[in-house]
Fold this sequence. Notes:
It contains 16 helices and eleven strands. By secondary structure, the chain is an alpha/beta fold. It is globular, with a radius of gyration of 19 Å. The protein starts with a helix and ends with a helix. Iron/sulfur cluster (SF4) binds next to loops.
Amino acid sequence: MTRLSDIISRDEWTREDLAYAVGLEEGDPERELLSEAAHRVKAERVGCVSYYRGLIEFSNICVKNCLYCGIRKSHSSVHRFESTLDEILGIAKWTYENHYGSVVLQSGERTDPKFIDFVEEALRGIKRVSDGKLGITLCVGEQTEETYRRWFEAGAHRYLLRIEESSPELYSTLHPADGHHLWSVRDACLRTLKKIGYQVGTGVMIGLPGQTAENLADDILYFKALGIDMIGMGPYIVSRGTPLGDRVEAEGGNTDAACRRRFILGLNMIAATRLALKDVNIAATTALQGLDKRGRELGLKAGANILMPIVTLPEHRADYQLYDGKPCIEDTSDQCKRCLTGRVRWAGDTVGFDSWGDSRHYFGER
Ligand code: SAM
Ligand code: SF4
């Protein structure tokens, strides 16, 4: 029996088990074992069905300055845009008519009253144009409890807020020390979202400078301790012109080999998370495909069951570049749909059209 098959046979995974699995390197035959075991758990616990969440990136205006992000406030060469309500509703209608069960409304972070009202209006509008049938995930950052409640009442039922990194020390190296980028606030937001009744998603960036396999194991244990319903995590990808991206580049951390390592870590994290958390929804994120043409399919094979095809208006896609080489920015939504459905089939899944594909964990273990 190999060390991994011994680990897989256990019901509860320790920090050491998780770190071992996450740290397996490309070419190690145990990686195949990890992926197959995770795929078996996926088939048993959530089924081999991939659910689509049409990703509407509706604005790249942000008040934050996360050191890694291509649309951070201080990135002055970024052309800023805001979609209109009509544009958002037009996209939502297309998404509904194309049988995607849900949309994700994502943007930079803003907390001004105009923005809060706008999101509320968009939520009610999306429900209206889809006869109440589109599920809605919000991904618009840290907000007050009152705001989260307003949006929940307006129709959002899932919220995605990545903790980015479960270690507060590592988190502090990724954000300015200006008192506005606090790990404790992000953690508190996740707890508030749960209390309100959202299906709560979180996640981390994988392959960050200074991040160890033990940190990644702790990330999975953090998801578990918080009772998280959905995971949206992916490799960190350099964005040139950001403080972190430029540092990584200067230190030789943006070579093909380094990117490949982040990609493999990303797949291992999906598999280990599926094995440890079992019935949560896990996204195969676009960033995986940013590092490998078959990235998202391999994510599905490693245990993911959610895809987030970009449905942002073509004219805004290039302005929403969180990292360099983001895929799909040249494509139309029709092209994305055709291409993705082929990818899902290649991975051996079917598409859960017209379904919200809610997190089983949310209903099973609250
Ligand atoms: N502004 C909101 C927030 O930060 O929660 C939502 C949108 S933000 C652009 C969505 C996610 O993009 C972040 O949680 C972060 O993990 C990811 N992201 C930003 N820059 C990235 C990079 N260089 N590589 C990979 N992911 C990145
Ligand atoms: Fe803004 Fe989100 Fe990017 Fe941070 S990660 S700079 S909050 S868009």
